[in-house]
């Protein structure tokens, strides 16, 4: 089968490319000419160059393609370029959908996020949950929600698309959490904020496997939450500590973190600087809790992810 992966050089996209190749698919990867291709160094892949909103480039990349896996996204919290995030996450998804429909692609799998459900206030929810949060916690939250609306509209008109909603994606080359973990492994992470924050976890390779299963077995128009389960940040560090003997970081006092976040937020906006903590990250640490149940993916797709413990232990046994 011939497939297209958008964002093929990214964290999720590159792992998906490798999984698709392993099962024998012919893979086309959409990347920008300025993209870092280190993650694809050992891959046999046909590269198609173009921006995610470039319909001509998308049309050329989709020629002869059976399935499109749309993983390209601008993923970040904090002081982001909201206009660029809107362009990539919403208008990019619009372009992929329009071109795929015009060409007659047989199926599309869209990599969404559990964030589209909004703050569940700690309630464990499934795919039928209707968002109750009226506003949005971040530009990422808003743009991924709006992109999902486009996907759902295309599905309602008969386009064959399946959506997967991963929780926090982990792996040894994770660009978001691994820098923190590397600091911990060097014994330099003495204090951490938000130890009680609940985080859902899915291994990036299990996500890739689920996306392939969704293409093969997923109900058209369906949602599939992908998570091995969740635990607090402190519990995560306790697992790392058990494996390494390194002490768990102390939990920074919440009032201090909130004050520092507010101050750094202002400084960051003045100097166009991305601080390590800001109002938005503080909100995610203390005020927002999304919890999910991935039973449907296990039942309908036959998805069998590794455990949370195995996922986290792998990160420190490289």
UniProtKB/TrEMBL annotation:
<dbReference type="InterPro" id="IPR051783">
    <property type="entry name" value="NAD(P)-dependent_oxidoreduct"/>
</dbReference>
<protein>
    <submittedName>
        <fullName>Epimerase</fullName>
    </submittedName>
</protein>
<dbReference type="InterPro" id="IPR036291">
    <property type="entry name" value="NAD(P)-bd_dom_sf"/>
</dbReference>
<dbReference type="GO" id="GO:0005737">
    <property type="term" value="C:cytoplasm"/>
</dbReference>
<feature type="domain" description="NAD-dependent epimerase/dehydratase">
    <location>
        <begin position="3"/>
        <end position="218"/>
    </location>
</feature>
<dbReference type="Pfam" id="PF01370">
    <property type="entry name" value="Epimerase"/>
</dbReference>
<dbReference type="InterPro" id="IPR001509">
    <property type="entry name" value="Epimerase_deHydtase"/>
</dbReference>
<dbReference type="GO" id="GO:0004029">
    <property type="term" value="F:aldehyde dehydrogenase (NAD+) activity"/>
</dbReference>
């Amino acid at each position: 089968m011939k497939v297209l992966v958008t964002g093929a050089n990214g964290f999720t996209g590159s792992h998906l490319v490798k999984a698709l190749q392993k099962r024998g698919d012919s893979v086309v990867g959409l990347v920008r000419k300025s993209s870092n291709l280190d993650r694809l160094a050992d891959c046999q892949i046909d590269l198609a160059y173009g921006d995610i909103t470039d319909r001509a480039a998308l049309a050329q990349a989709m020629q002869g393609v059976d399935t499109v896996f749309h993983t390209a996204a601008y993923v970040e919290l904090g002081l982001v370029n909201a206009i660029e995030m809107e362009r990539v996450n919403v208008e990019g998804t619009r372009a992929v959908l329009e071109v795929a429909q015009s060409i007659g692609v047989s199926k599309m799998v869209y990599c969404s996020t559990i964030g589209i459900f909004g703050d569940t206030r700690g309630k464990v929810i499934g795919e039928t949950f209707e968002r109750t949060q009226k506003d949005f916690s971040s530009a990422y939250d808003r743009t991924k929600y709006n992109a999902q609306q486009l996907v759902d509209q295309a599905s309602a008109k008969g386009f064959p698309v399946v959506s997967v909603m991963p929780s926090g994606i982990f792996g040894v080359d994770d660009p978001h959490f691994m820098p923190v973990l590397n600091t911990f492994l060097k014994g330099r992470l003495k204090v951490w904020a938000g130890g009680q924050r609940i985080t859902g976890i899915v291994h990036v390779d299990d996500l890739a496997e689920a996306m392939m299963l969704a293409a093969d077995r997923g109900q058209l128009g369906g949602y599939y939450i992908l998570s091995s389960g969740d635990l607090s940040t402190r519990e995560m560090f306790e697992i790392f500590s058990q494996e390494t003997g390194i002490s768990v970081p102390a939990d920074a006092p919440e009032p201090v973190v909130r004050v520092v976040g507010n101050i750094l937020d202002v400084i960051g906006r003045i100097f166009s600087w991305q601080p390590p903590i800001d109002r938005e990250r503080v909100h995610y640490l203390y005020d927002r809790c999304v919890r999910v149940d991935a039973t449907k993916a296990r039942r309908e797709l036959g998805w069998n992810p590794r455990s949370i413990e195995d996922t986290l232990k792998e990160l420190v046994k490289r």
